């Protein structure tokens, strides 16, 4: 049997630099600067390992021997002491890694891939409003499907899309926790979905104005105000309201408006900018909007920032309309299909949709700008057919 307890408390203090054996794998490593470290050497599964047991002081010879014997017992039981210590650390850590902390950390890690770095809060808000108020203080390692079911049950049948997003975000948070080394159940979200059952909620399409009614509504937008001009350009271009509301002078070059890739929604490559051909009518609206511009943003709000989507929606609501601004994209798409007989690829590109598979897109290098310009000029002519000109600006 290997000799043990070779060192004494006095020797620990007086020995010079070097590696000094106490026996049975316990060593004292003394440095030139006077510092010292206890190290346990052992072999498990044919692999030699070294495990730090702390510095001396404060770890005494007696404490080092006790720790060494504890870890030798783990080796005899077939457990690697280093992995066992890491496991114990993870177990202890579960009490301080709360779901709210993991969710925030996961959000921070993903900001770069979110539109506008997630400033609008749409990625985080389903968690913030429907999960974290009830489960935020639960250690993520203790989270189970019944907790999640109880948190989302109140909105499962009434706000189905929000609940779906909350479950998806929660699944991402759990994967993030697992990547941090925490012991979590990665199937919690799917198990909760099974417990919640099929949602009774039926999705409703955003109300869209029939394309035949668009000219009359366009004619009513004659005040020259920021809201009226924004709605007119929204109709003329067929873009989503987000890029339009944040339209900046620097994005306009001649008769082309270039929307930065990160502002485009959907499956488009976030690095790929999107060119919008501007009809003669659209250019006139932009020129009228320039007199309202602030910091080169063409559609500023009255207070600060840019006009909100709610401002345009409320304008339509006050006019007694059930339609919403986003619905004008459907109006344009129906007109292209029924009236203009626009080729599918061109029509879908007008709306900024991805057309074809990845291989097809790799070989197709055009964005149909010239064809889309013809379509948008024809659409503007239709929209403008009953417009008699703006009134004095508000």
What features would you highlight for this structure?
single chain, 394 residues, alpha+beta, Double Stranded RNA Binding Domain, DNA polymerase, domain 1, hpI Integrase, Chain A, 3 domains, four-stranded antiparallel β-sheet, three-stranded antiparallel β-sheet, 18 helices, 46% helix
What does this molecule look like?
Helix content is about 45%, strand content about 10%. The chain has about 400 residues and is α+β, with helices and mostly antiparallel strands. The protein folds into 3 domains: about 10-80, Integrase, DNA-binding domain (Double Stranded RNA Binding Domain, 2-Layer Sandwich); about 100-195, Tyrosine recombinase, N-terminal domain (DNA polymerase, domain 1, Orthogonal Bundle), CATH 1.10.150; about 210-385, Orthogonal Bundle (hpI Integrase, Chain A). The strands form 2 sheets. A 4-stranded antiparallel sheet has the order 1-2-3-4, covered by helices on one side. Strands 5-6-7 form a 3-stranded antiparallel sheet. A hairpin with a 5-residue loop joins β2 (about 25-30) and β3. The longest helix is centred in the middle third of the chain and has 20 residues, at about 160-180. Mean pLDDT is about 85; it is low at about 265-270. Keywords: DNA-binding.
Secondary structure elements and pairings:
Layout: H1 9-14, E1 18-23, E2 26-30, E3 36-44, E4 47-55, H2 61-76, H3 81-93, H4 99-110, H5 125-130, H6 132-135, H7 145-156, H8 160-179, H9 188-196, H10 214-220, H11 226-237, H12 241-245, E5 252-253, E6 256-259, E7 274-277, H13 280-289, H14 309-318, H15 328-338, H16 344-350, H17 358-363, H18 369-383
Antiparallel strand pairs: 1-2, 2-3, 3-4, 5-6, 6-7
């Amino acid at each position: 049997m290997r000799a043990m307890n070779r060192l004494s408390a006095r020797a620990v203090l007086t020995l010079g630099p070097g590696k000094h054996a106490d026996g049975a794998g316990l060593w004292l490593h003394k440095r030139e600067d006077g510092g010292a470290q206890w190290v346990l050497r052992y072999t498990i599964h044919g692999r030699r390992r070294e495990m730090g047991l702390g510095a001396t002081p404060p770890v005494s010879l007696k404490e080092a021997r006790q720790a060494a014997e504890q870890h030798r017992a783990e080796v005899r039981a077939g457990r690697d002491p280093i992995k066992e210590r890491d496991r114990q650390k993870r177990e202890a850590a579960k009490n301080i890694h709360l779901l709210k902390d993991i969710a925030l950390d996961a959000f921070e890690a993903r900001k770069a891939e979110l539109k506008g770095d997630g400033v609008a809060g749409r990625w985080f808000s389903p968690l913030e409003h429907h999960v974290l108020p009830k489960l935020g203080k639960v250690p993520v390692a203790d989270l189970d499907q019944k907790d999640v079911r109880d948190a989302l049950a109140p909105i499962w049948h009434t706000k189905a899309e929000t609940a779906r997003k909350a479950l998806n975000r929660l699944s991402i948070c759990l994967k993030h926790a697992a990547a941090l080394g925490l012991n979590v159940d990665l199937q919690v979200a799917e198990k909760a979905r099974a417990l919640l059952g099929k949602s009774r909620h039926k999705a409703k399409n955003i109300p869209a104005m029939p394309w035949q009614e668009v000219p009359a509504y366009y004619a009513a937008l004659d005040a020259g105000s920021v809201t009226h001009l924004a709605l007119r350009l929204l109709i003329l271009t067929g873009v989503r309201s987000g890029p339009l509301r944040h339209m900046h002078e620097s994005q306009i070059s001649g008769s082309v408006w270039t929307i930065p890739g990160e502002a485009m929604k959907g499956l488009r490559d976030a690095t790929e900018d999107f060119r919008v051909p501007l009809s003669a009518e659209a250019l006139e609206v932009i020129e009228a909007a320039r007199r309202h511009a602030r910091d080169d943003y063409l559609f500023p709000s009255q207070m600060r920032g840019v006009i909100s989507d709610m401002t345009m929606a409320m304008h339509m609501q006050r006019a007694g309309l059930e339609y919403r601004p986003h619905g004008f994209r459907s109006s344009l798409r129906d007109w292209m299909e029924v009236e203009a007989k626009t080729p599918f690829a061109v029509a879908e590109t007008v709306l900024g949709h991805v057309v074809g598979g990845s291989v097809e897109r790799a070989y197709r290098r055009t964005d149909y700008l010239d064809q889309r310009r013809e379509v948008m000029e024809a659409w503007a002519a239709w929209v403008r057919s009953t417009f008699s000109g703006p009134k004095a600006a508000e």
